[in-house]
Amino acid sequence: MAAWSIFGTEPEAKAKKLDQKVLEEQEQEVRARQSQVERPWHRHEADNPPVDKEGKQVAPVTKGKLLTTPTRLLKLIVPLPIVLHKGPDQDSKHDSGRSISHNDTIQPLALLVHPQQPLSYVERLIQAEIPPVVEKGRDKTPSVYFRAEDTQHGDNKPTTRSEARHKDEERGLRGTPHHNVASYSGLGHEGPEREGSDKRWIRWSNSTEVGDFIRDAARGREFAIDIEGYDVEMRVSVPSFNDRTYYMRAQLRRMSRQIDELSRLKRECDLLAHKGANLLAKGGFAVLSCWWGVVYYVTFHTEFGWDLVEPVTYLAGLTTIMGGYLWFLYISKDLSYKAAMNVTVSRRQDALYQARGFDLHKWEQLVQEANALRHEIKVVAVEYDVDWDEAKEVGDEVKEVLTEERTKTGHNPRSSEKEKDEAYTEHERRKKEEPGYDGIPKLSREPLQAPRAVME
């Protein structure tokens, strides 16, 4: 009877205990998975240092980085060490101790941000990866602060008026109101290293855009990220001009090679088109010269004389004038030598482009994108106060081609007149298609008013 108990026989009791233990382990596993989903610092082995393929320990990451990407996004890498203190018998997430680890070999955290996003967005991303702080027995989400170096003012300020005057004379700023002007001659992490006594940190508002914050932080070598409630200061190196424009300059160099090849083909086609237009103009002069010779010969060296040549020349001249007037009515544009040459050259160019496989749409798109990249790089160069050697990146010939095309499309008055003419022609065509249009312009329906000088 000793083998019997309230649970039955002894084997049955052992089986029930084993089943209960298995159920508890399964419940613990389910709770751990739910905790991993809710809070990333509960993940298994989250505080283990990274190792390479051979099992050797990787060098610790003590400073974060701000990297550029081909998609114009910024990749922020911060050394955020997280550790989870949890006992073997502690199943509830409220019984675990969460804190910031001082182990520098923890895997860094990577964040993708856009330059136009505010710092509060970066703050929320960091808050999602860190445990809350306990304040008055309650969990509180810690605040994140961003600080940058204030290079305009340092901690080693002059104490006397003579020292201040001497310092101004050394800098060449005596008598100038330089204390209210911010200096933006920053080179990022490529700039000179300054001692800790020369650094003065200022905290930036979290509503500031990331791009504006980085632009100001580039005056120093790094900026700092502080977490409220933890004694942690994460330093992040600021990208230099070469870092910020690395992918833009690489894309510009790749485009410049394509533009160089297309520009040579376009230059050959344009040269042949202009030569053809000049030959056509010379041919017109030759035809007029032949006509003059025929008129002279028939008038003075034949028996027909001026009696026959006079009506022929009159009718020929009148026919030419009527044909030119009809052509003017057809094209609705100014009839001049430049306009005729442009029409001839453009038609010849289109024929040569099609015959030699030159894609004009691709050319215009490449030139537009390359000029846009040039503008962006120049804006960054102005922000960093750097002299960017454009000819070194794209070459002198490509630089001249891009400048010439930008001048044609952006500052050429003839292109604007052409656009106005095309818009006017399209407007007239639409008016003719409207029902009830009688072909009489609206201005002609109104009574004409005499000039003021005549009325007086």
From TrEMBL:
GO terms for molecular function: calcium channel activity; uniporter activity. It is found in: Mitochondrion inner membrane. It comes from the Eukaryota. One of its GO terms (biological process) is mitochondrial calcium ion homeostasis. Keywords: Calcium, Calcium channel, Calcium transport, Ion channel, Ion transport, Membrane, Mitochondrion, Mitochondrion inner membrane, Transmembrane, Transmembrane helix, Transport. Its main location: mitochondrion. Residues 244-366 form the Calcium uniporter protein C-terminal domain. Residues 11-32, 39-56, 145-173, 190-199, 399-435 have a biased composition (Basic and acidic residues). It is a multi-pass membrane protein. The chain crosses the membrane at residues 279-300, 312-331. The keyword Transmembrane applies. Belongs to the MCU (TC 1.A.77) family. Homotetramer, assembles in a dimer or dimers configuration with two interfaces. This is Calcium uniporter protein.
